[in-house]
Design brief:
The chain is mainly alpha-helical. The chain has nine helices and two strands. Helices cover 73% and strands 4% of the residues. Strands 1-2 form a two-stranded antiparallel sheet.
């Protein structure tokens, strides 16, 4: 069945990824069902959307949709799950919105962060679809540099906004920030050693690695955020402050 769907051995990881994302989404929905506070509800809506989009992406890849072949000029043929990039184009900005709202970042800072993030994903997709190897690595380099800017902005600018929040919020922010720093830093390395880069890792192993990263960066992130005292304990998980809005 998996072979007929075009997913073969890696289909098991796509199935597990789908189940993991769905379970995470259902858990977040059950936790936020009776939430009445508008600010708290906002975090639940964003986090549920992240899990739901990722679940749809994994399910589509399991059924063979979102998979294409790219034939390089040297004759090498690469199986590419472009649906993964469609997932990231929506979910990574939502993740940054979650942590930015938690920190109390201004609308301007959030817009800047999300714009650079979108550029990172689009150039990453371009690297994957290019047929000339040199062009692939050139766009991978551009995407990786953009990622470094995103992480720097998250640490410095968003981190500065979080420093004005209460201790619960600061603690949650640091944990989520570190999770993003570690998980996101592995993505370009996974691309480089995987089938889309140097081919040191098989599609089977590459899919497993991306599944672990996705579950950690999305479900793990949401689990930490929505169980934190900054959210459920009524601590300050502020939207942009009046001063920040004025600065916009």
């Amino acid at each position: 069945m998996q072979a007929s769907l075009g997913v073969e051995g890696e289909g098991i990881w796509l199935a597990l990824g789908t189940v993991g994302m769905l379970l995470g989404m259902l858990y977040f929905m059950s936790k936020g069902w009776d939430v009445e506070d508008p600010e708290e509800e906002e975090f639940y809506v964003i986090t549920i959307l992240i899990a739901g989009i990722a679940a749809a992406s994994y399910l589509s890849m399991f059924f063979g949709f979102g998979l294409t072949e790219v034939e390089l000029v040297n004759g090498r043929v690469i199986d590419v799950y472009w649906a993964r990039y469609a997932d990231w184009l929506f979910t990574t900005p939502l993740l940054l919105l979650d942590i930015g709202l938690l920190a109390g970042a201004s609308n301007r800072d959030l817009a800047t962060l999300i714009t650079i993030d979108a550029f990172m994903i689009v150039t990453g997709l371009a690297a994957t679809l290019m047929k000339v190897p040199v062009a692939r690595f050139a766009f991978w380099t551009i995407s990786t540099i953009a990622m470094l800017f995103v992480l720097y902005y998250l640490v410095v600018t968003v981190g500065e906004a979080a420093s004005a929040a209460d201790e619960d919020t600061q603690s949650t922010f640091r944990v989520l920030r570190n999770l993003i720093l570690v998980a996101w830093a592995v993505y370009p390395v996974a691309w480089l050693v995987g089938t889309e880069g140097l081919g040191l890792l098989s599609l089977y192993g590459e899919t497993l690695l991306f599944m672990i990263l996705d579950l950690s960066a999305k479900i793990g992130f949401g689990f930490i955020l929505l169980r934190s005292r900054a959210i459920v304990g009524g601590g300050s998980a502020p939207t942009p402050s009046a001063d920040a809005e004025a600065a916009d």
